Amino acid sequence: MWRIYQYTLCPFSRKVRLALAEKGVSFELVEEFPWQGRDGFLEISPAGQTPVVVWKDNECVLCDSTAIIEYFEETVRESPVLGSGPLERAEVRRVVSWFDQKFFAEVGVILLQERMYNRLIAQQPPNTHLLRQAHQAIEHHLDYIEYLLDHRRWLGGATFSLADMTAAAHISVVDYLGAIDWKTHDQAKQWYSAIKSRPSFRPFLTERMLNLAPPSYYEKLDF
Q: Do 94 and 199 have their domain in common?
């Protein structure tokens, strides 16, 4: 069986888990905190980043969420996650890049640093200036999600795809950290609620980061 080295609030790990679950690939989870720099982990992940996907006794080691998903897209034909044609796949990849790069840089990495790492590991108070910047950026990204949904059924096009999985993976982490006000983004809320209802997503709703609880509405499908 495949093993995924990850920790519960890693959005890139969530992205991979969603894609593999949608494709029907079985896996088991291995908790790994990359900031600990464990020697055994660095041997299979020189970059020291999660996720890492491993087959059996390191017979196959896959690093980087995008490379991992591309591998399974090529080797598991069931339930393609990138779309059905060149234009659709290009658009899905563009939206994936938006959330993996722009959203993570402007929102995700800041909140993980200030609300998770500083609290649990560094034991330092959060930088309120950075938190304000991240909250402002969240509004921009939710507006962009709603702009896309004004023109298509799902973020990447007519069908549910890796674009939606990637966006939901990143947003779910931010939502766990209590940083989203859904009251003014009903369209984005409906889209996210639909994804929360999928079997591939439901395990995230009950997982918890030790000593860091999510808001009470986090695991509710109707929030």
A: yes
